[in-house]
Amino acid sequence: MLMRLTNVPRDYAWGSTSLLAELEGRAPSAGPEAEVWFGDHPGDPADLADGRTLDAVTGGSLPYLLKLLAAADPLSIQVHPTKEQARAGFALEAGLPADDPRRNYRDDNHKPELIVVLSDRFEALAGLRPADATLRLLEAFGDSAGVQALRARLDGDGDVLRDAIGWLLSGDAQAEVDDVIAALGAAESEEFATELRVVRSVADRYPGDPGVVVALLMNVVVLSRGEGVFLRAGLLHAYVAGLGVEIMAASDNVLRGGLTPKHIDVAELLAILDTTPGDVPVLRPDEGAVAAYEVPVADFSLRRVELGGIDVPVEVRGSTMVLATAGEVTVRGADGDAVDIPVGTAVFASAEERRLVLGGTGEVFVAEPGAIG
Fold it and tell me: For the domain 290-368, what is the CATH code?
């Protein structure tokens, strides 16, 4: 069975007025459009043509949540727990009301994520840079007291990145934070020119926020259309600007580390944060009509299919979504009837559909449960 899915964009403040509108070929919106959710998550289940929402069909059983994401401003710096950490944290918070702002755990699941870029350029912060590289970056910041204090934290022994992040977010380092942000404005470095530009854009949006200095410790990742990045549990990250297709495990567990007015639990953030430094690999699938983004989780898998007027059959497993991102495309299931998929909308194929035929000219993303069990 095939069912069309739509949803109203969520109006988070960091959303864009133009990126989703341009994708769908309409005029810019009057306010921010940040995310469109295609899933059965209780926070915003997708709409069906008959007036119901998708959870009425699935019973809330989908293991993944598929989204369109359009960022004009940086999202909060955040990290997600492993399954074990989520189960323990959710159990500890069982006495808190579901809408309590102090809650860190909304459910007992992990939330690995994959984003694939639709815009020409997408900027993100992902993972932590080795401390020695950040010390080279800080050479461009002069020798004010705050800069010297940050250098001293990064030049010590032990887990210096965890120590530095805890200090920056503690509330006791605001004078040093302000000092480092002031030095950021005049810093110049050929090696770190992109990093400085991106973090300055973050500082412009969140002046005085300790998360700006946390961002200085992170890798800047610049992606092009069709490239993706997988964000595992424990990995500090924040999207900065751009349009993409995002898929994640069905969870709402977020520990925040800055660039937000929402609750920041520094101790819990540090407890689940993986401070192993290093680059986050960029996923660049092989050329071809069907490109798979390989991820090491069983919750979801994602393929991009380019259509050039010739039908493309795809084998699928479990409850599947087909999201259109360009052109004029259709999908056919077992009954052979073609269903149009307007750009910016999706079609849900129930679990008994094992083979879909994609037609037309354009681009779609096929989301389904993962193969790893």
Answer: 2.60.120.10
Q: Which residues are designated catalytic?
A: 256
Give the tens place of pLDDT for each residue, 342-360. Answer: 999 999 999 999 999 999 9
On the question of a common fold for 9-125+223-278 and 290-368, the answer reads yes
Structural Rg of the chain based on CA atoms: 21
pTM reported for the whole predicted model? 0.95
Q: Are 258 and 215 in contact (CB under 8 A)?
A: yes
DSSP per-residue codes, 203-254? HHHSTT-HHHHHHHTEEEEEEETT-EEEE-TT--EEEEEEEEEEEEES----
Q: Is 80 annotated as a binding residue?
A: yes
Please tell me whether 78 is known to bind a ligand. yes
* pLDDT of 372: 57
CA distances to 63, 69, 198, 245, 313 from 138, rounded to whole Å, are 43, 32, 15, 34, 53
CA separation for the pair 333, 354 (Å, rounded): 8
Calpha distance 217→125 (Å, rounded): 9
Pick the CATH number of 9-125+223-278 from 2.60.40.10, 2.60.120.10, 3.40.640.10, 3.10.25.10: 2.60.120.10
Distance CA 204, CA 263 (A): 21
263: tokens are: 């609750």
Question: Which residue ranges make up each domain of the chain?
Answer: 9-125+223-278, 131-208, 290-368
Contact (Cβ atoms closer than 8 angstroms) between residue 320 and residue 333: no
